Amino acid sequence: MTGHRPGTGGGGDGSADGSADGSGDGGPADRDGRAAVGERRIVRRWPSWGALAGAVVFYCLSFTPSLLPRPWYLQAAAGAITAAFGYGIGAFLGHLTRACGLRLEGRARPVARWALVGVGSAAVVTATAWSVRWQGDLRRAVGMDPRISWWQWALVLPVALLLGALLVLCARTVRLGTDRLRAVLGRAVPNWAAAAGAAALATVLVVGFVEGFLLRGLLDLAERGAALTDRSTSPGTVRPTSPTLSGSPASYESWDSLGAKGRDFVGNAPTAAQISGFTGRPAKDPVRAYVGLRSVDGTSFAEGARTGAGLRERARRAVAELERAGGFERKVLVVLGTTGSGWVNEKIAKPVEYLYDGDSAEVAYQYSYLPSWISFLTEGEATDAGQALYDAVRARWSQLPAASRPRLMVAGESLGSYATERAFPGGVPQLTEQTGGALLVGPTPDNPLREDVTDARQPGSPVWRPVYQEGRNVRFAQLPSDFAVPADAPWEQTRVVYLQNGSDPVVWWEPALIWRKPQWLEGQRAHDVSPTMRWYPLVTFWQVTCDLAASEAVPEGHGHRYGLMPAEAWARIAPPAGWTEQDTDRLVGYLADHP
């Protein structure tokens, strides 16, 4: 023999040339030498044409419109990851084609090569050019300037090529290691058993490295960094002096123990004078009770800090702090689910205090140092945290005389809405029976109550604005006009409001996007979802994943930014006696001017 066919002598995504070294007499020693050379070339061989074709197709699809406009570096990441998937799929299909004996021979090979180079290059250029227009349309849909800097967008291709090459290099390194292991095992067991064993062991090692070492190590590093940040205090935030606030001199909880987000929560509470400035009536200093992660153990990483016992103890302290500040003597009491590091959105907290002249109480606690987007990976903590706090507050609330109890409500945003929902395993009936109302903003795809409501929606109502049981208790909104959907339908006293934007990737991201077209892309779409967006297997999943990183880099009312819609929602969930639509408009305007 003077050579061997592409794809032999080491397998893989296929070689673009002939034999490994182009020589040899075909003897055993020579074949072993060619196999060794071919094995080394697993890492540095030229990609097969099938792999390149798959990479080009998927790379071009990554430019198609998604939920939100993306900066150039996120587009580069999306292009690299999706191209790597296309590369693998193309390599696999090419391998199957060669295994079936379908090969290009003679002059057809160079013709096919040049055709792929020409068509692929034209496709990449065309997709990049059209993507500028698509991104402009997306930016226009969310109220942004549609113009894009060409010099930045020109960086997408080289950065994507670099990232994609690194991904392929990692995959080939794993492949080389698997082949070496298969060769070792093949000396003692049949080839099929050696191949299966090597593949299984490689999978275990890769998964173990990613989850046990890489992911866990990154999470630990992120948590330690977040723990240091948790000791900081935002500029302008000072220790409160009002006894109705945690962290004050009268509080059971020290100022330092509250954490950065807890200090923000109590430090930004409006005063009675500020509330009176809006209402023109006498007001009270509102109650805000908060317990930080360091409250129980005093350190960042003490054993049991976030176990069930630790959460229950922190919930018990939150109830004690609430009672000390007089929270159970107010007209309304809101249990707030926090997001990751203990953050509470002021635009959810403040409206209730202005609605009720400060005669209100709000309670929350911290269950993690990690920001919400990382805590989402370990949402079990949110599950236990939400239920522990609500159960503790309701247990004490139930002991009060029925005539003097405050109106008990719940609220949460993003992962905080998930934590809130998990406190009601009985679903919407339990939520409406045990509370006087709920506000759930930007829910996650795992929110159990939202999933039940969406699945049981009335036929004909879209998944992004579902109508459940004729809107008697539960309604969804992105705009103020959505509260009137369904039209002329009675809205009972206990009201549950979901605020979810049609373009919010936090709401719509889920692994099923890999293999299934989502319902929010079928039929009528939300007003801020591009009509040119299409679903593609794998591609759309990574597009929406990248959209998560840009979910707050858009104007209010789009993405994961809900602006002052919580004020609109609270005015409908729990309006005080005599409250009018004009009062709501005035409150929204006031909060816009006094953030």
Question: What this model shows, in words?
Answer:
With 595 residues, the protein is α/β, with parallel strands linked by helices. The protein folds into two domains: 28-207, no CATH class; 230-501 and 562-593, no CATH class. The chain is 50% helix and 6% strand. The chain has a seven-stranded parallel sheet, sandwiched between helices. Helix 2 (49-61) runs parallel beside helix 4 (108-141), helix 3 crosses helix 6 and helix 11 (308-324) crosses helix 14. The longest helix has 39 residues, at 191-229.
What fraction strand? 5-15%
Described by strand count, sense and barrel closure, the largest sheet is: 7 strands, parallel
The secondary structure category is alpha/beta
Distance between the termini: 80 Å
